[in-house]
Amino acid sequence: MAANISVKWNFGGPTPPGGRRRRRNVHRQVMEVDPRASREAERVRRYFDDGYTSYYKYWGIIETGKWGVALLCRQKKREKPKREERWFVVKRVFNELMQDKLHKEIEILKRLRGAPHIVQVLAIDPDPFEALSRGALIMEHVENGTLWHGRTGGRKESRFLIGDPKPPGGEHDLVPLLKLIDFGEALYDPNPYVTDMGVKTNIFHIGRLMRMLISLDTTWELPPGEVTMPVQGGGERAISTASACIAKPNHPNLDDGLRNLVMLCTAVKVEDRPSLDWLWDTLMNLIFTRTPAYYAQRNFPWAQLEEDGPIQDLIHYIVYHYGPTNHEGIEAGEMDGIE
0.70 exceeded by the pTM? Predict the structure, then answer.
């Protein structure tokens, strides 16, 4: 295969051995890639072929960024020393000038080791990269790939990986676990004594995403409008919100509690947005009180859909572009032998 051509698997990599995966844009796409990425991929292949063939196998390019490339690799099962088979990702930078970004990312990921919503750094033994002038970041492989979001008609890669659609533990029974990636350009907060740094901005972004899902309008920024709504602390008052497009009488079948919460989260003034604790408590109240019976009493036509199964189907369709959750995925081993 030509040096500047790569086979990219749109659904985030091969089927894990012995398992099934759900169908997500399942097709091979032959695409041109950055020649620097192809060069680093070939180097990793050579590293593994030079004395490590019984330990590891290079699989292919997952993604190419501005300053590096992510490569999918497999650790082979061994008895001596005992190693279980697993997939992992090797991240390499394109040249020495970008090595500082990789070192920063490794440092940050080590500090965040164990955080469930952060991609995890791994150690492999033996490590083919430790003696090289330019090392590598070894990370866990999150098989479902990245989220994408639209901005004014364009597409921009997300810095979130989509995890297991139903991991153990109960926290994510209905929605998949998301993992944050790409810390090479992250900055440390210069003022560690500010405890609410970024929270109100994150709340605004949550509200914006909800507004997009409700309206199906992915315009990144909409002109604000003034809407009278219930506010934190009780009572009602006029709030300038960036989600005025979902105010009544628009979207007549939208739950009023959810409608008001989204508009409040996207309040133009930071001080008008809810606190994180109040937002959480309000959401929990909506989850436990908005039952099928609640909506049936109010003659909502879709009351019967307010069950966990239909909600999970909808979320999986939005996030993964799947069919229903009982849809049969690709059989394990279907990709065996494909390089």
Answer: no
